[in-house]
Amino acid sequence: MSTTTVQKSATADQAPAPAPPRRTRRRGEQGLVGTLAAHGTLTLASLIALFPIAWLVYLSLGPDKDDYLHPGRIWGKMTFDNYSFVLTETNFFDWLKSSLVVSLGTTAIGVIIAATTGYAVSRMRFPGYKKFMWVLLVTQMFPIAVLIVPMYQILSELQLIDTYLGLILVYCSTAVPYCAWLLKGYFDTIPFEIDEAGRVDGLSPFGTFLRLILPLARPGLAVAAFYSFITAFGEVAFATTFLLDDEKYTFAVGLQSFVSEHDAQRNLMAATAVLIAIPVSAFFYLVQKNLVTGLTAGGTKG
Amino acid sequence: MTVAIDRATGKRLGDRGPRPGPLQRLRRSYQKYWYAYAMIAPVVLVLGVLVLYPLAYGFYLTLTDANSLNTARTIGVNEIEATYKFIGFDNYADILWGETAYDRFWSHFIWTIVWTAACVALHYSIGLGLALLLNQKLRGRTFYRLIMVLPWAVPTFVTVFGWRFMLADGGIINSALETLHLPAPQWLEDTFWQRFAAIMVNTWCGVPFMMVSLLGGLQSIDRTLYEAAEMDGANAWQRFRYVTLPGLRSVSSTVVLLGVIWTFNQFAVIFLLFGTTAPDAQILVTWAYYLGFGQQPRDFAQSAAYGILLLAILIVFTSVYRRWLNRNDQQLAI
């Protein structure tokens, strides 16, 4: 039996054995109109996705705070003054430090605490399993309005308002169940046979987890860590309420302080926004290869 | 010792025999499950301390008339004792059917529902459309994907400010509309346009997540199903309707649920877009925040009561949604 050359391994060829005289359309191939329409739509969507950010970058180059009203004028007098001002004259590096301390703290605590639980709920069934999973699910959908008032009261009693620790604790209330849920999804994709092999070879359940499963689950851990980091980094409500000292602001609060003060320094704000966005999105793109697998794995229903 | 489960049936292996006595059962259950409990203990502890205790305390606050004037606080060196008192369910009654309850709760409630439905529908349909386009063999699709993920990659609190510049009076959007001789709405002042702008910005922020997850779902659908469908003479629409959509079911149900929860709880977009200037465009979450922290005196009790109500709404929705999904599952199984 002769075969035509296989174009792509993913889509098996369906053409009959001898090449037909007329060029047939292969699976997944489109006509010219279809391709153009697809490219057109995707280009438009990309432009819409890109434009607000590009605009922010463009405005950040304008030296005057009202330049956003006359974007045409910026072109002639582009300058990086805003950036040097932000880096030298504002609390930018304090905010960077706070953001990193809070986000990394949350990430570390969240992932470390959640890892064993994710494994336990993925592999073991115990009395109370369903209730526990339900609690994990419900905790993730807590509106901030539920916890913000009691947390504020409790933290003020403990003198933890305006401290990093207080904020980390608050973030852990969402990060921990979320990581557990996400990791459960990832552990579910690791074959049970590996556990069984480990148990047969005499490892305890904890040994199995530590020596076999954890190394295999690195991508899942990375995704969980990444998500905790991003949520903590971008959180607005708690940070705005609980941080009072402008040297302890995280970026989410610091950025607001440009407009809420006596005048709106929009050019500086745009510059700061760009400075924040660049490392975060770079980081995002580094990890994004794992995102799809992590998300869809985490998405399986409990 | 812990128990392995059979993944195919979900049953415990070696689960059999008559019920032994209660004491023995307790001991055996301890021997059997202590490992599982040890492993979930850290999370249980954290949830108990960081979630359940504040939740219970918050619920207690909703039964009082606590506000920033009568709670315990420290001014300088003076410590002032809490003086709020227990008033039962008055807060809830006041929110739900007190005077001006429509303006304070129900109008925000309706807007929140509209907001959630509109945003999730837009997220999902646009996300699915783009995912379908990206799932084709197309030159430069990786490039397109990388750019379209950008709204997700940049933190929301950054991009919302970008939108604020664009939507402001005399910002680029209104300038463009004026150049085209179209009416330039007051995006950040007029209630209808505020709501419109909020939905627009949130759609922009939320589509990439849907797109990426649905793309993952699309890629996991078995190619041979399409071949089989084609052999049976299914046209493009039928292939979409009877192969793609069922294949996406588990991913779709999860991302829609997540989308509803996240959108319902979306704080950053509305808060950063309008601050406290737009009382009519506030969804319930931001409105509750406004009551508790955006005004003086801060009304802690009412704010917490809103929080509890919101949580109740979400829990009811989630249980109904999951039951609805499971009902479909059983039908499929039969």
TrEMBL record, chain A:
Record region (Disordered): 1-28
Keyword presence, Transport: yes
Record carries keyword Cell membrane: yes
Residues of the ABC transmembrane type-1 domain: 96-287
CDD domains documented for this protein: TM_PBP2
InterPro entries: BP-dep_ABC_trans_perm, MetI-like, MetI-like_sf
Residue ranges of coiled coil: none
Keywords: Cell membrane, Membrane, Sugar transport, Transmembrane, Transmembrane helix, Transport
GO biological process entries: maltodextrin transmembrane transport
Subcellular location: Cell membrane
Annotated GO CC locations: plasma membrane
Highest taxon in the source lineage: Bacteria
Entry GO MF terms: ABC-type maltose transporter activity
Major subcellular location class: membrane
Membrane-spanning parts: 32-58, 100-121, 133-152, 164-183, 221-244, 264-287
Pfam families: BPD_transp_1
Topology relative to the membrane: Multi-pass membrane protein
Family, similarity comment: Belongs to the binding-protein-dependent transport system permease family. MalFG subfamily.
Protein name: ABC transporter permease
Species name: Streptomyces spinoverrucosus
UniProtKB/TrEMBL annotation, chain B:
Alphabetic keyword roster: Cell membrane, Membrane, Transmembrane, Transmembrane helix, Transport
Ranges annotated as spanning the membrane: 34-60, 109-134, 146-166, 196-221, 268-291, 303-321
ABC transmembrane type-1 domain residues: 109-321
Gene3D superfamilies named in the record: MetI-like
Feature: compositional bias, Basic and acidic residues: 8-18
Entry's localization field: Cell membrane
Disordered: annotated span: 1-21
Keyword Disulfide bond (UniProt): no
InterPro entries according to UniProt: MetI-like (IPR000515), MetI-like_sf (IPR035906), UgpAE/MalFG_permease (IPR050809)
GO biological process: transmembrane transport
A cellular component term, taken from the record's GO annotations: plasma membrane
Main location: membrane
Topological relation to the membrane, as annotated: Multi-pass membrane protein
Sequence similarity: Belongs to the binding-protein-dependent transport system permease family.
PANTHER family recorded: ARABINOOLIGOSACCHARIDES TRANSPORT SYSTEM PERMEASE PROTEIN ARAP (PTHR43227:SF7), BLL4140 PROTEIN (PTHR43227)
Name of protein: ABC transporter permease
Native species: Streptomyces spinoverrucosus
The organism's taxonomic lineage, starting at the top: Bacteria, Bacillati, Actinomycetota, Actinomycetes, Kitasatosporales
